[in-house]
Amino acid sequence: MAETITIIDDRTGKQVTVPLTDGSFPSTALRELDADLRVYDPAYLSTAACKSAITYLDGDAGILRYRGYPIEQLAEKSTFLEVAYLLLNGDLPTAAELQQWTYDVTHHTYIHENMRKRFVDGFHYDAHPMGMFVSAAAALGTFYPDAKEIFDKKNLDRQILRLVAKMPTLAAMCYRFSTGLPFVLPNNSLTYSENFLNMMFKIGDDSHVNPVLAKAMDVLFILHADHEQNCGTTAMRVVASSNADPYSATAAAASALYGPLHGGANEAVVRMLEEIKTLDNVPAFIQSVKDGNGKLMGFGHRVYKNYDPRAKIIKKTAYDVFEVTGKNPLLDVALKLEEVALQDEYFVKRKLYPNVDFYSGLIYQALGFPVDMFTVLFAIPRTAGWLAHFSELLLDKEQKISRPRQVYTGSAERDYVPMVQRA
Ligand code: ACO
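^ thats the input. predicted complex w/ acetyl coenzyme *A below
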């Protein structure tokens, strides 16, 4: 028997019975009871705003899959470009498809000279790279007048290719500007991650990138490529629902990611670890969090109420990186924090576990990235996920322009008061 749910309006005695599909029922059921009835759901705690076939996430079991493939298998066996293809197209590529996709991405990495000379050079010398990245992503769209033709599939695919290909170039450009270093052009003989590290750190003629570090970068890109309906992806979908171009929508998603409760958390974690500094200070810090003085950054998640599977992979990747770079001195503080928190009733009771950001910052730091680049490193691979959602939304016949309702709590109608009569 199909599952149903019956909702009764106690004010009128009216009732409606609707099918439950995948644990959800359509909100139109409420309208049948009363057209003015609203579900009050700030932060969408119980609202499924779309149907999606991209990423599966079970927070209680600590499961994350892209298009059905477990994140652990992808991190171990795949590459970021293959994962980006998977997210965007629904299936893993054949050898020929991957070769073509890799070729196409590699040959779309250049950015118009005006972006650097006139746009990026216009920033203040100490501009935050993420602020630069967000604005540059939107500005990039102005170089492609066809960006707005989003219902022409071939054209949209070209914009998606451009965005995936150019994000590392844009990110490195912002970094090199902020450090006063000359811009490094993309190198077509390198892989996606090698090319990014090369554009970031190349000094002189040597384009050699350590393969262990490039592999770690690629794994981090895979882990950050998508995460279903998080804050940034929701921003992407909301903006896409107005049929804005993918560059503007990507800039909006990146803006949402920028915040310290979201992608900005990895930056906040390292700043927190630097503040704690020594193992002796860990118990006092944990106590101050429990007393309500700030949060343990990198802990807790809206959906994961179990260990974030990405955090496990990142912790392992951290050791691979430290073999090459030497151990990040903050690692011991992080390990101690995790150990103490996971035994503390406050964190256990609230199901607070390390999330993706807890260890990623330590790797980024060991790779040589300054703290304020961390969220940019998150935005580069997430662009593929955002664009997969952008495309999915456009094809979804049930979607309309996003437009939630509100519960008005302001004044009732009142007459305008002339200035002289105001207290
Ligand atoms: N440290 C201390 N207490 C915490 C933490 C934390 N990191 N996270 C949640 N709590 C507490 C809350 O104070 C609350 O306690 P209460 O029940 O006594 O009021 C309880 O745990 C539930 O927390 P909520 O804020 O209701 O959980 P929510 O799902 O809204 O928030 C979030 C999730 C934003 C990730 C939160 O855990 C947090 O701020 N963590 C720190 C920032 C962080 O690491 N963000 C990265 C998330 S991953 C990502 O976006 C890529």
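The chain is about 50% helix and 5% strand.
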